[in-house]
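can u pls check wat happens w/ adenosine monophosphate
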Amino acid sequence: MNILVINCGSSSLKYQLLNMNDESQLASGLVERIGIEGSRLKQETPAFGKKVVEVEMKDHKAALENVLKALTNEEYGAIKSLEEVNAVGHRVVHAGEKYSESVIINDDVIKALEECIELAPLHNPPNLTGIRAIQELLPSVDNVAVFDTAFHQTMPATSYIYPLPYELYEKYGVRRYGFHGTSHRYVYQRAAAMLGKDAKDLKLISCHLGNGASLCAIDGGKAVATSMGFTPLEGLVMGTRCGDIDPAIVTYIMDKENLDTAGANNLLNKKSGVFGISGVSSDFRDIEDAAAEGNERAQLALDVFDLRVKKYIAAYASIMGGVDGIIFTAGLGENSIDNRKSICENLEFMGVELDEEANKVRGKETIVSKPDSRVKVMVIPTNEELMIARDTLELVK
Ligand code: AMP
């Protein structure tokens, strides 16, 4: 059974074709600059390596047409005909409170996702466009939606209710939803397998540290707290997003800098985070390089980032009444030796003993705590596409 996984962004689209008999990757690719001059498709297959196709793609449907052509191309494709695509899994960012698990897409699901557009105006529209395009291009296959928010739906009200007038939750759904759920779910399942334990018996903290970053406390296989909130702006310091700040700062700066809501949104989402503090870049590699050369603001950005992760780890251990494992994943979590070290420093009181030698690892699934560390620290490369394909398989088989 081959499953195509689609992740549609506003002007880009990532895809993978997986053979679910052995979970091997048949092809992976990226379409960039959809609807913008200079659009191109990059595909990689184990048999033919990398291929770049430069072709104008005016919308997501055109992009997906080209993806299907590339997958079946005789010279660099992965399959002979589209009949070899048995189902399609779509990453969808926001399902509000409607879905706590992945679902086969039907008209009711589409309607529910349309209703969530207000909650995720940048993400749900391209996700829906991708779904509709595949329904037209591959009318006989089942489509499955896998939601970033779904895993967090098990959080208790104490974790998701904001201390605002309760009517705002009832009227507008203003509550914590949480994101990166598919990634947190994948890594906690891998962590349980690595530790040789049933997830039901584990208290885990998953640290998804990439350009966007969030933590999730997972008790007995269920999310009980997460750091992103009503939107992916809350919580940790991120590449360009501020995370937690005093909300009064927003109106204060709007007054001082004469910003409207779009301007304030832009400042908090695009100009803040480690980019805002360092003034160097939103990419942690650039910031680490600048810090190594003595740039104090770059070092400050890294320190503020690490401190907040540490703060959340301790908070989440206290919510769960302990922690058995801390997982580092995503671009920074998987690769940054220094950040993991700095985050784990001073957590010895909780039973976290990082092994500095074992920690000298990038992008590899492994345990990086000392053998007798009460809390296991793990590096687990995330694989959201595989999780989406597994859910799709489970629902369509
Ligand atoms: P993601 O959003 O998961 O793709 O993660 C992107 C972030 O991971 C970027 O800020 C990168 O700088 C960071 N990253 C990737 N590789 C490394 C590395 N080797 N060392 C430090 N940061 C890295």
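The chain has two domains: 2-147, 197-379.
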